Amino acid sequence: MKAHIAALPPAAALAWKAPQGSGLEKVCAGAGVRLRAVEEQDLGRTVAALCGLPGAGRGVEPVAAADPTPALVLWGLDRNALDAFLDGLKAAGVRIPLKAVVTPTNRDWTFAALLEELHAEHRAVRESAE
Predict the structure, then answer these.
(1) Cα–Cα distance, 41 to 62 (Å, whole number)
(2) Which pTM was predicted?
(3) Would you list the DSSP string of 96-117?
């Protein structure tokens, strides 16, 4: 029996409330990363579905509006490519305070749930620095 291997989609960046004209589009294009703006109606979709990952559920859970702090969620970059991408953001002056990568744990979360977790972690780090 032959194994069927699903081709993985290209690397992706999910941008929540990213500033227009910030240079994010150019950094993504240069790194071969598909950029997708996440809109309010996408908040109830899973992270995996938004990235186009195989086996991702297509359902949408109803969710309330999320905090408007910009966030960027990355999928499909190895460690070296991720470091280069983050360096590219810094060099281009792109400021997005919340960043995460898709993991086996968070891939099935709704985007809203991931944003909530990022905000909680961000608050905890700020509070521990005070």
Answers:
(1) 9
(2) 0.86
(3) -SEEEE--TTTTTSBHHHHHHH
